[in-house]
Amino acid sequence: MPSEAETGQNAQQGTPWQRVQNARHPKRPHTLDYIQRILTDFQEIHGDRLFGDDAAIVCGFGKLDGTPVMLIGEQKGRDTRQKLLRNFGMPKPEGYRKALRAMHLAAKFKRPIITLMDTPGAYPGIDAEERGQAEAIARNLREMARLPVPVISVCIGEGGSGGALALGVGNCVFMLENAVYSVISPESCAAIVWRDSAKAELAAAALKMTADDMVKLGLVDGIVAEPSGGAHEDYDEAARLLKERLLHSLADLGKLSAEELVETRYQKFRRMGNFFLGA
Asked: What's the alpha-carbon Rg for the chain, to the nearest Å?
């Protein structure tokens, strides 16, 4: 029998707007909280070797139950100082280029890659645009599709548009039970459609952005259960459930050759959005 995490039974509970609020909860665990609990011997990598370092993305080698992996994740920060340092979890081009440098290192040393998505979106400031924000995201999408190693992507909080997708081209893509993943925030959607951002709750339902919605649409492969009340209620249990899913997926992907990994990943994303039988 499939587990509750696999069927997404927990994701049936709570409205889409409640899911959004849980995904944004100020005490929700971020990438570094999971790294501390699921990896050993973590060595962080800094800088993109082109412009600078972006603290909104954390990446490095570590061991998952003794298996060497590369983990790359978006980091929001907790207090005001950390939020400013991490740019509220909104990466700039150098962040995505740092992530890509780390991915190429992992491919060179034949290490599986785990990415954790948690951002309201890529940083839209003029300095980011001047340094090629769109190009950096597009390059990540292309290069991730070609990586000859297993890639597992997990949305652990907010999956904001291309800012998250730049780390989301995986052989397996999962969402935590209270995570959300969408091309636009509910507030922005409401402001565009109804010219009233106060209708964000209505927009959240219309966007089909919850984990359960994403599974039904075939855009993610499964839901990782959270502790009762949400991941912010028990960091250790949330990390245990995530680690369990990662180990299971790594074992499955480890059976595939490099060519099969690339081909299955490519075909997975080619099928997205295709709702016509036989097309």
From this structure: 18
pTM as predicted = 0.92
For the chain, give the percent of residues with pLDDT over 90: 92
For the stretch 97-154, pLDDT in tens is 999 999 999 999 999 999 999 999 999 999 999 999 999 999 999 999 999 999 999 9
**What's the rounded Cα separation, in Å, for the pair 24 and 166?**
20
Query: With contact defined as beta carbons under 8 Å apart, do 204 and 185 qualify?
Result: no
Task: Tell me the C-alpha distance between 166 and 12, whole Å.
Answer: 28
How many Cβ atoms from other residues are within 10 Å of residue 255's Cβ?
8
Annotate 30-47 with DSSP letters as a single string. -HHHHHHHH-EEEEEE--
**How far apart, in Å, are the Cα atoms of 23 and each of 179, 185, 249, 275?**
5, 12, 23, 28
Axis-axis angle for helices 235-253, 31-38 (nearest 10): 70
* Measured CA distances, 14 to 17, 28, 80, 159, 175 (Å): 8, 17, 30, 18, 16
